[in-house]
Every structure is written in C-alpha cells, then in structure tokens.
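User: Please fill in residues for this 99-position structure.
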C-alpha cells in the first residue's frame, strides 16, 4: 500500500484509533455481579455472563477469590478490587462449592 504525503494522517489515524480503544478498554474497571444464573461481567460496551455450570468450585487465597474452570483458565477476582470480599465470597458460595 502506497502512503502518499496527503494520506499519511489518515493512515496514522486508522492505526491509532483501534490501539487507543484497546488501551481504553483494558484500563476501565470491570465490575462483576453475582446473579442466580452466573457471574456477570459488565464492560463499558457489553456484558458477559459466566454460567455457574462452567465452574467446578472456588477457593480464597491471601489476595484473590479464584473460580476454577475445568479445561480453561481460572477466573481470579483480586480481594483489593472488591468492596466487600466476604459478601462476594458468600454470594459465590451460594452457587459453587468451596474447593
């Protein structure tokens, strides 16, 4: 692709806009909500649901609540990011067994 002197600002913008959106999305907080169906992740432009059937159980470490998923990466919730870690653990414990 030829980038002439008149088209380089447009080409640079086409490259930088997706990079900027990606950086913005990764720096935004990702709140989670415990529901009867599963754990809902609320992103600025979408919602994602992790169903309880996808998890085998959970454990609490010194710094995180770890929700274990067979054959997939575990989902880690940092205790420092939670407003009330004990209440979150109680909510998760109603749906998952402690491992």
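Assistant: Residues filled in for all 99 positions:
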């Amino acid at each position: 692709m030829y980038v002439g002197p008149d088209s380089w600002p447009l080409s640079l913008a086409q490259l930088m806009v997706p990079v900027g959106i990606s950086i913005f999305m990764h720096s935004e907080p990702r709140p989670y909500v415990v529901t009867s169906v599963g754990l809902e992740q609320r992103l600025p432009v979408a919602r994602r649901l992790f169903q309880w059937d996808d998890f085998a159980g959970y454990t609490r470490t010194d710094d995180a609540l770890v929700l274990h998923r067979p054959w997939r990466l575990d989902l880690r919730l940092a205790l420092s990011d939670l407003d009330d870690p004990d209440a979150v653990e109680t909510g998760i414990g109603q749906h998952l067994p402690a491992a």
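For context: The radius of gyration is 20 Å.
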